[in-house]
Amino acid sequence: MRAAAVPRTPATCTVGAGGNDLGPVDVDLADAGAAFLVAGPPRSGRSTALAAIVSSLAGRGTGGFGVLLCCPRPSPLMDLVGMPGVVGALCGSLDMQIDEALAGARGPLAVVVDDAERLGDGIAADVLDRFTRTARDDGNLVVAAGTTHELALHNYRGWLAAVRHARTGLLLNPASYVDGEVLSVKLPRSTSGGWPPGRALLVQRGQTVAVQVPHG
How far apart are CA 204 and CA 201, in angstroms? Predict the structure, then answer.
């Protein structure tokens, strides 16, 4: 499947390069259900993919998205603090920070979470659940990244389940056809991993497109 041209909106982000000419591959996150998941094994480029999405969403001026970075552990995303459009950054234990940060934010807002599997329960998970449930109606976005194995292994509820159920995201270096279950997509049984860093499948509504995401 070749990626089709996507009309540019404030919620449109470039997730990588694909097609015969390796042109930009864009996704309108609002049209995709206001939720986007980046899944992959360690060192597959999850944080770098998130950074590319943040760069696409942030700093578009009036009508663009403010971006709140949420990193429960040290992340390369923290290097984006100070970028125009990045309205806040939370690192470490988010339980006592995230509610206040969201309450003080002005929309439209994109909440971008790295190492999302670390926020499967607890106070921060409850706050993210409330935000995610109303994100589409409120004009906000949720973008999360996590380890494919952890996301598939645990029966997460709440906000992580909602992000998965949107069935839109990137599968970086899938190690087996079972990895497709994270985004409810069927992969060939011959899927065996070993892809170059940054190589991924863009998943949208059960369809896949091979893309190369930035990898630094």
Answer: 10
